[in-house]
Design brief:
By secondary structure, the chain is α/β, with parallel strands linked by helices. The chain folds into two domains: 135 residues, Aspartate Aminotransferase, domain 1, CATH 3.90.1150; 270 residues, Aspartate Aminotransferase, domain 2 (3-Layer(aba) Sandwich). The chain is 37% helix and 15% strand. It contains 13 helices and 15 strands. The strands form four sheets. The chain has a seven-stranded mixed sheet with strand order 2-10-9-8-7-3-4, sandwiched between helices. Strands 11-12-15-14 form a four-stranded antiparallel sheet. A two-stranded parallel ribbon has the order 1-13. Helix 8 links the parallel strand 7 and strand 8. The protein is globular. The structure holds pyridoxal-5'-phosphate (PLP). The site of pyridoxal-5'-phosphate has 13 residues, from helix 5.
């Protein structure tokens, strides 16, 4: 077997979850998904497709109707994006893998901004790329970009910059100015930008109740099909590289139905690529999965046709989960936390508990609380814990904080001999 594969680290999140196997009293917030089932009309679309007998392969790039629907959805958010730039994939993970296969040869250098969901650094490593990481910086409980440091790390030898914003796990978002600076720099160095924007709709800037909103994040006025009828009448979306790039820039954007449409188990996503790249991406999809399953794609079309019934509600609910959890967590002695601007995670530090893998395992066993350890996302995030707040019942969040508080009151910080 390849040494690279033997060297791959197992998921640290799974390692913690395994500590809770067989226990049904654990409040689990470790995985990055909502505990809410996919809306019924989306499930019905898949059922109807199967009943019609749509059990065959589709085009490598996806059903033309779905590519058209994605093009309409993305164009409404970011200006015209033709369906000739859209490739349907079997989830965001598959989109990322196909993108890396398309862009990076073994031995080439990629720069990734960390902490980040581990797949983004593992996938290029699996393909033999040299992965250099540039860490976000922390002030208090908040993570932000050190733009000069990142710019200095991207040289003409850098084939791809991999960046995920809104970010899993930190909730950090790129500002428009930072995106522009990175795009300008990457144009000069000839570097591709692989932007993972799967959380773009889970963005809490407008009407933020906890943080000061940043002025440079534009709000779009209800352009998405169907969403103009929604009560809020305002479609919120994080800044995207697509807003500022030309179709022919070296930019690939990764998307997913998982988060904004409650469709994690369906494995459906898409790529936005320069038009001259689409055909080649189709070839790669052939050799990876051949295509996404047709009934799943039908569900995707239904989701996009009726986004007004799903995404604004999901975002409003996640915002209220965030606004419930963060103040409760911040009030726990020893916790450093900032309100995330996007995504669905609280990322926090526990003073005195520097080994968060051990802490997370102890929390499962001793407190019945399931969190993801910071080490899963970058070595520099050791000492941090990620809490996914996508909970259909926000009371679970309060209960979880109570368990943490209670555990901390009894636990001793390693090496200090004193309770925290
Ligand atoms: C940053 C990021 N990108 C991509 C994905 C992939 O999502 P999926 O494969 O479910 O579409 C995830 C899932 O958690 C994620 O956190």
């Amino acid at each position: 077997m390849r040494q690279t594969v033997l060297n791959l680290e197992e998921s640290r999140i799974r390692e913690v979850a395994n500590a809770g196997i067989g226990r049904d009293d654990v409040l689990a917030f470790w995985f990055g998904e909502s505990d809410e089932v996919t809306p019924d009309f989306i499930r019905q679309a898949a059922i109807e497709s199967l009943q019609r007998g749509e059990t065959f392969y589709s085009h490598n790039l996806g059903l033309p109707e779905l590519r058209q629907a994605v093009s309409g959805y993305m164009s409404a958010l970011h200006g015209p994006i033709g369906s000739d730039r859209i490739a349907i994939t079997s989830g965001g993970v598959n989109a990322l893998m196909v993108a890396v296969q398309a862009l990076v040869d073994a031995g080439e250098e990629v720069v990734a901004v960390t902490p980040v969901w581990p797949n983004l650094t593992a996938q290029p490593a699996i393909l033999g790329a040299k992965v250099r990481t540039v860490s976000l910086k922390t002030v208090g409980g908040a993570w932000s970009l050190d733009l000069p440091v990142l710019r200095a790390a991207i040289t003409p030898s850098t084939r791809v910059l991999i960046v995920n914003a809104p970010n899993n796990p930190t909730g950090w978002c790129l500002s428009r100015a930072e995106q522009q600076a990175l795009l300008d720099h990457c144009r000069q160095t000839g570097t591709w930008i692989l932007a993972d924007e799967v959380y773009e709709r889970l963005y809490y800037d407008a009407g933020d109740t906890i943080d000061d909103p940043s002025p440079d994040y534009p709000k779009r006025t209800a352009p998405v099909r169907g969403e103009a009828r929604s009560a809020s009448s305002e479609v919120v979306c994080a800044p995207s590289f697509l807003d500022i790039a030309t179709p022919h820039d070296r930019l690939v954007v990764v998307h997913s139905f998982s988060k904004s449409f409650l469709m994690t188990g369906w494995r459906l996503g898409w790529l936005v690529v320069p038009p001259e790249m689409t055909h080649h991406v189709g070839k790669l999809i052939e050799f990876n999965t051949s295509c996404a399953s047709v009934f799943t794609q039908r569900a995707g079309i239904a989701a996009l046709e009726r986004t007004a019934e799903v995404t604004p509600r999901v975002v409003a609910h996640l915002r209220s989960c965030r606004d419930t959890l963060i103040p409760l967590l911040a009030a726990v002695p020893g916790v450093q936390v900032a309100a995330p601007r996007g995504g669905m995670y609280a990322f926090f530090r526990l003073d005195g508990f520097d080994d968060s893998l051990t802490t997370a395992k102890r929390l499962v066993v001793e407190a019945g609380l399931g969190l993801a350890p910071g080490e899963a996302f970058a070595p520099e995030a050791r000492g941090w814990l990620r809490w996914c707040f996508a909970s259909h019942d926000p009371r679970r969040l309060g209960l979880g904080v109570e368990r943490l508080r209670h555990w901390l009151a009894g636990a001793k910080a390693p090496g200090t001999g004193i309770g925290v």
